[in-house]
Amino acid sequence: MKSSKITFTNHKGQTLSGRLDLPLEQDPHNFAIFAHCFTCTKDFSAVRNVSKALASQGFGVLRFDFTGLGDSDGDFSETNFSSNVEDLVSAAHFLASEYKAPSLLVGHSLGGAAAIFAASEIESVEALATIGAPSNPVHVQKQFGEELSTIKDEGEAVVRLAGRDFTFKKQFLDNLEEHSCENAARKLNKALLIMHSPQDATVSIKNAEEIYHAAHHPKSFVTLDGSEHLLIDKKNAAYVGKVIAGWAARYIAMPEKEAIKSNHQVAASLDGDDGFTTLLKLGNHYLKADEPVRVGGDDYGPTPYELLAGSLSACTAMTIQMYAKRKKWTVENVQVHTSYSKDYATDCEDCETNDGAKIDTFKREIVLSGDLDETQRKRLLQIADKCPVHKTLETTTQIITSTKE
Question: Which residues form the Serine aminopeptidase S33 domain (predicted)?
Fold first, then answer.
């Protein structure tokens, strides 16, 4: 995942801070916005891990701090549920202006409730996923404890949540009471995925049931059995992100899987506007080759020479293990580290003045793990030089080129 800091302004002109998480080896096929949980931030572990999982599936994900939280400007005490919804709409405007309009909204806890309302106001959004969301935003009042009555009676109070002090005003409570996720879900004309844990002790799974019954199809429910409300466990958060990505593919526009028809073992395809990013068909498998950014590429895949060195490394490892198994020698692991360069031939004369004396050089280091004596290790290093790709690289080869209509 590639992650970069971004800022944008909300409807009041305040600067909100976020991070844009992008896939490593491709341009994003879709963009998503993540709404974090109550009084959390964009850097909360669940937010990072779910976003990372979505990015690994090709999504660009904008996660940001709501007004008055984290690195965003504004006074938290002046915010409310409605301002969170407005911030999400502002985030969508930012993506549409600078990148691509979001097609997916994801919200955690109260952020999930806000996402239900925001989805109706963001035309480009085609799918919405909530995680542990309350069916009524008023639910968060349970976290105020004895200070709830103080807020109602005196107009405001300082509430300590997760080790931090927050000032809440009566307008915050009044605003919560004006919103019902059930009512919003009834009006929602988007695909909806509801994810909730039956063990959630903060927001009962009853809330998921109420949202589900209120919403129209297409709607889906996935149980997060064994998870706690905040998704602290990295594996649970990664699971959530991958499930959302797989589910969303059914409802949002996804690019058709690239394909190359060929009767050859390997084929490459490169469009004129793709720079160096080349699609490769290797047998039944697809991957991308590219060049580093420093030479004008996008670094979406290995370079051609890295692929060549990779072939040598893989073939060497396979050959060593195959020979060891035949001999019934225990090689627990073999690592082959290879680098490529053009070096002067060892025995050349006038190397400094004769460019033709430079030859292609692969430097290979082999690490053998296992109960092996010195004789066995030496033999396995000899076998490494007999791997088929090694032999191919050392022999004179010919390349016969023709054109095909």
Answer: 47-132
Strands 191-196 and 219-223: parallel
CA angle 254, 46, 167 (to 5 degrees): 120
The tokens of 202 are what? 């903060």
Please report which residue ranges of 215-257 form alpha helices under DSSP H.
Answer: 234-248
The letter for the amino acid at 315 is C
Name the region of 268 (left: φ>0; alpha: ψ -120 to 50; beta: rest): beta
**Structure confidence by residue, pLDDT tens digits, 161-201:** 888 999 999 999 999 999 999 999 999 999 999 999 999 99
> At residue 308, what are phi and psi to the nearest 5 degrees?
-65, -45
- Environment class of 268 (CB within 10 Å of its CB; exposed 0-12, middle 13-18, buried 19+): middle
Nearest to 227 by CA among 246, 200, 208: 200
Provide the domain limits for residue 96: 2-248
Domain co-membership, 41 together with 178: yes
Q: How many domains does the chain have?
A: 3
Pair (244, 280) in one structural domain: no
**CATH (domain of 34):** 3.40.50.1820
295 and 326, same domain (yes or no): no
Residue type, 313: S
Given a cut of 60, whether residue 346 has pLDDT beyond it is no
Please check whether residue 304 is in contact with residue 266, taking contact to mean a CB–CB distance below 8 angstroms: no
